[in-house]
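Figure S7 source data.
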Amino acid sequence: MYNDLQEKPNVKQIVILASGSGSNAEKIITHFKEQQTAKVAAVFTNKNTAQVLERSKRLKVPAYYFNRESFVGTDQLLRIIQSLEPDLIVLAGFLWKIPESFIRAFPNQIINIHPALLPKYGGKGMYGSKVHEAVKESGETETGITIHYVNENYDEGAVIFQAKTELTPEDTPESIAKKVHELEYEHFPKVIEKLLT
Ligand code: GAR
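Tokens for the predicted glycinamide ribonucleotide complex:
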């Protein structure tokens, strides 16, 4: 029997970094509250008004804001995250580039979700609605999600998983975003679970 103060043995620890709404973070948190094979130990955000802070609070997961200096100017955030001994760091709508110090400290332990089929529509400045607008503009007949390891370049790490959804000429950037989010909610928690087992 375990009480709240004791960790169950072998429960993998996940740390989430998010910059915005945090709807993916919420899906991951609730998935692992049910599965109990892993748990989200903490959520960190670089935006002090991000909705992910309220979501985390509601779901009783510790959530913290950090500034750029603590992330890239010093090892402050790295040390805090290291002290949590995460098995996996998950970028769920996190928009800053990950410093090399993190990549060295957590080799193949940082993953990102991108709302398109990489290598298309990736790179600096390609995030959220900007991606869906570009997909619409190009007249694509499909889009999707890519879950990949994080390396020192935006959206260039090895691909772990992709899933596709069809588009019609009637789709708008908003409806594309909705289709993509549905794919993310369906697959991201499961892919994380698989990586941790
Ligand atoms: C997600 O669609 C995610 O794929 C995207 O931001 C959204 C965050 O939504 N990430 C990127 O664009 C990274 N380049 P959420 O905050 O509701 O989870």
